[in-house]
Amino acid sequence: MLQKCEKFTVFGMVQGVGFRYHTSHQGLKLGLTGYAKNLMTGEVEVVVCGSEDKIKEMAAWLEEGPKTATVDSVVSEPMSFKPFKGFKIL
């Protein structure tokens, strides 16, 4: 199975609402690796690695986010594969 990575930047009310925690939980549930990290500009950066199907599922989830968050938009960009262990909250 081909593994790939994608980087997402999530805009909206996504800091201070448990977004990274829920993103990590969702990533692990889908069998993905990577991380979720707050950016100084108020967005959350999410890197996910795994199969293309699971990354697409995660992308759809990020468009909504957890109930506590308000997602305005999500920008994605491909990146080279990195073998992360687990799904970290940074």
From TrEMBL:
Q: Does the keyword DNA repair apply?
A: no
Name the keywords, alphabetized. Hydrolase
UniProt EC number: 3.6.1.7
Which GO terms fall under molecular function for this chain's record? Answer: acylphosphatase activity
What reaction does this catalyse?
an acyl phosphate + H2O = a carboxylate + phosphate + H(+)
Lineage top rank: taxon: Bacteria
Q: Which residues form the active site?
A: R20, N38
Domain named Acylphosphatase-like: residues: 5-90
Gene3D superfamilies hit by this protein: 3.30.70.100
Residues annotated as transmembrane = none
**A Pfam entry, by short name:** Acylphosphatase
- Family to which this protein belongs: Belongs to the acylphosphatase family.
Name of the protein in its database record: Acylphosphatase
Which gene is this protein's source? yccX
